[in-house]
Design goal:
about 0% strand; mainly alpha; Growth Hormone, Chain: A; about 425 residues
């Protein structure tokens, strides 16, 4: 029988929390060195991840591309990066359960920082794609390792606040990326991203490994750690894993379609002036910062992860309807505000990564927490490819709506199938 938590082997319920645990904790209890480093690491992670969207047009134009190639090659570069993240998620996730959360956190930062620095030196599209693939490998490890470390170090009642800080600080990296790209060249933006990552490595001093992992490592005889394939050997475990991935797909649908192609949608919808992809990304991620703060705080107030995910899914679906209803004939400023609305209502990323970490035992938690967000990002290739395939048949707007309906339906069903994990004790193992 699978031991999924002390409360119940099949569906652990949130334990009763005493009145004392309801009392507000000191700020320093949440702002530990691990939370600060994980938050800043995710900040640089998002900066580097989204930079391709921000500098897509200027960088590819500088490399000699124009017209439709700006779209097709832009998608190809994004897909190479996401493919690297898909593979890197598995690699770093398994290593995180075998070698430790902290070691993988800084190994991933080193890899994506060096690849991003090199990206500022490219002079052809082929090398551009190769370096984004390597950067994707490194980017894959940061969030999962950081969230796992924070989730295991903080008390159960504070986990939501910790991951809220990590996610909200992290996604603001996209706003800074747009600012840097505006102030300098696209090459300078890559140099800054790589440099920030290398500087971050100095902050590893004072960060300690998760006590849960250390105890597991000491008594690991006969305990399987980081077994990625075990996620597919039991139906209930696989359902939890697949649902953890699918609940976040609408966020990346909005990002990879409606925001990534903001200049094209602005023209198609008759916006009264040009819209910069970088500005659309900045507004989207600015909204995402606020949404992550709101969803994280609401989750703590309602003592529920699942209800908040469902609420924000509904809000995001409504905001997409507003986007297509209001954008025709709107000013660029209004269009950018609509992008910000998409970001705010898609701001349940903090809850999503927390749910993934809380659904599984210590011996496979890093594998799950690292692979889940990267499978979401990796599935962007499916989202964009299906969008491009449908585009000649349904036009830009029709293709976007058709793709969105599919991913929202899967997300709603998945959210309803997940068990509530607020306050659950994470010190347990997954066993066959």
């Amino acid at each position: 029988m699978e031991n999924t938590a002390p409360a119940s082997p099949e569906a652990p319920a949130a334990p009763e929390v005493s009145a004392a645990s309801d009392a507000p904790a000191p700020v320093q209890s949440v702002l530990s060195a691990a939370v600060i480093v994980a938050a800043l690491g995710y900040f640089v992670d998002i900066y580097d991840l989204i930079l391709v969207s921000i500098v897509r047009r200027p960088s590819l134009t500088a490399l000699g591309l124009s017209g439709e190639a700006l779209v097709s090659e832009g998608v190809s570069i994004l897909n190479w990066q996401m493919g690297g993240m898909l593979l890197g998620g598995i690699l770093f996730g398994v290593l995180g359960d075998k070698k430790g959360r902290l070691e993988i956190l800084f190994g991933s930062i080193t890899l994506y920082s060096l690849a991003t620095l090199a990206n500022g030196l490219v002079h052809d599209v082929a090398l551009y794609k190769a370096l984004r693939f390597l950067a994707g490998l490194g980017l894959a490890g940061e969030l999962g390792a950081g969230v796992t470390l924070v989730s295991e170090i903080l008390p159960a009642r504070l986990r939501g606040y910790g991951t809220m800080i990590v996610a909200s600080v992290g996604v603001s990296g996209a706003v800074v990326g747009n600012l840097v790209a505006k102030l300098g060249s696209w090459r300078t933006a890559f140099f800054v991203g790589g440099g920030l990552g290398l500087v971050l490595l100095v902050l590893r001093i004072g960060v300690h490994e998760s006590g849960m992992f250390e105890r597991l490592a000491q008594k690991s005889a006969g305990v399987s750690r980081g077994d990625f394939l075990s996620l597919f050997t039991r139906r209930d475990r696989f359902v939890r894993y697949a649902a953890s991935i699918l609940i976040a797909m609408p966020i990346w649908y909005a990002n990879a379609i409606l925001v990534f192609f903001a200049p094209e949608f602005a023209v198609k919808l008759g916006v009264t002036g040009p819209v910069s992809a970088g500005d659309a990304v900045a507004f989207f991620y600015g909204g995402l910062v606020l949404g992550d703060l709101a969803s994280g705080a609401l989750s703590q107030a309602l003592r529920s992860r699942r209800r908040v995910v469902l609420l924000f899914l509904v809000l995001l679906a409504c905001s997409i309807g507003v986007y297509f209803a209001v954008a025709p004939g709107a000013s660029p400023r209004v269009f950018l505000l609509l992008s910000g609305l998409l970001g705010f209502t898609g701001g349940y990323w903090a809850i999503f990564v927390t749910v993934a970490a809380e659904q599984f035992g210590t011996n496979i938690r890093a594998t799950v927490a690292t692979t889940v967000p990267n499978f979401v990002r990796g599935l962007v290739a499916v989202v964009t490819t299906s969008f491009l395939w449908l585009r000649p048949r349904l036009d830009l707007v029709g293709a976007a709506l058709a793709v969105g309906v599919v991913w929202f339906a899967l997300a709603f069903v998945s959210a309803l199938s997940l068990r509530e994990t607020f306050g659950v004790d994470l010190d347990y193992l997954e066993q066959d």
